[in-house]
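Predict the assembly for these two chains.
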Amino acid sequence: MFEIFEYEFMQRAFVAGILIATLASISGTFIVLRRYSLMSETLAHSALVGVAVGLVAGYNPLWVAVFVAVCSAWLIEYLRSSFAIYSDAILSILLSGSLATAIIIVSLGGAFNNSLFSYLFGSILSVSSEDVVTILIFGSIALVLLIAFSKELYFIAYDEEVAKTSGIRVKFLNFLLVTVVAIIIALSIRVVGSLLIGALMVIPTVAALQYRVGFFNTVLISLFIALFSVIAGMTLSFYFSLPSGATIVLCVISIFIASLVINKK
Amino acid sequence: MQVNAYSKFKVPIFDVKNLNFSVRGQKILSSISLEIFNGEYIAIIGPNGGGKTTLIRLLLGLNKPTDGSIKLYGKKIKDFKEWHKIGYVPQRASLVDENFPATVEDIVKMGRVSKLTLFGRMSKEDKNAVEDAMNKMDILDLKDKMVGTLSGGQRQRVMIARALASHPEILILDEPNTGVDMVSQKNFYALLAKLNRDENITIVFITHDIGVIANDIGRLFTINQKATICNNPKETLSCEEMSELYGIEAHLIHNHKHEH
């Protein structure tokens, strides 16, 4: 029954998957409450530009993806706070702009299409030991920052202006949140894929919100849903030879639908 | 301007001089000068669109004035750090997002966040302050309830408890009665008067119900692009600004009826 753990690549995938589920669901709570859900999609596509550059130039795609996603997150936050452009319009422009850039870079690089494909849809087979270490290092930093500022981030999500008048450094924390989210998304695309990471970030929280419990319990439920979906998705993808990212997303959507039905008013 | 009885307190909490605020060339506030002193109870009235909320936002540093100066406890807003001294309850306070995952206690705890250190767990002092604030607002028995399930009046008390949890010296409320029933409003005014009288908390609030609280308040500001300051609202009938005040008051009542 546990033959799944006899394979080294599956052990790596599980470690990476569990880390990503933890990071995506905790950061996702703040993202959803801030009405930033679409941001995860945009940053995932920005990360793809990093992957493309990494593949073409011969650098570690994950590291370049982290760098590009963070730059993109800062650009979004800067545009949002400095210009009169609707937030969702900014996200939409950057999303298509990033994808276009990634496609051009990859098409110029020619032979790398297959590698890029694995980043688009996620592939547990392709998670290397180096990837696990990268996810561990950046993921731990991201998690520590999220926990350190969780009370402030929660307050800002509730009411940004009241938080500001209470002496909370709103601007700094907004940048911090988008930075952490960018790092988490860039790390996640290896396992879940850039087209699907948004789902893992947003859906566990939206499902958890259906239970109408306080903040701490909402985070816990969201974390549990994400972990369960990733573990179930990976196991199913192993035994039925299904693509990992898509299987994980369908698992999390199933839990979301179940949560909706259970909590119907 | 009349002599203000509170000016015996040397440093005002707010010291506003020649404040102007325009948006895209349209003047919202013009030549506003006023001071707010410790222990005062001030009501702000004025027609909708007259600039009341804008004035509050400028005082709190949420908008930057076109020109003029605002000092908070003698300091410029950008240099002011003791924001815990100021409790702010915005206009939409009782219209909270019903799906937001927050219990009453979660919200009141926010009042302590700016005092916590990094990774800061709540100290005994923080917990006491939170409980004390809920007690004062009579919402201790609701502490595990989701805010989205409360009535308008209950939510209003939660928002004020959050503001009180930081032990503010001044409480600024922007039309906090939006969406609140009449009985709750009456209790609410009694509570504000009590906070001002017993705890010496300075109170500044925007209201439409000036008649109800005329006996509680110390001063009345009417804001309609310019500010008219009435230092003795109980004798408003003999106040020089009466005709101007009444013009605004009549307009207000008219608007009020249309809103409900």
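Residues 54 and 61 of chain A are 4 Å apart (CA to CA). The mean pLDDT of chain A is 89.
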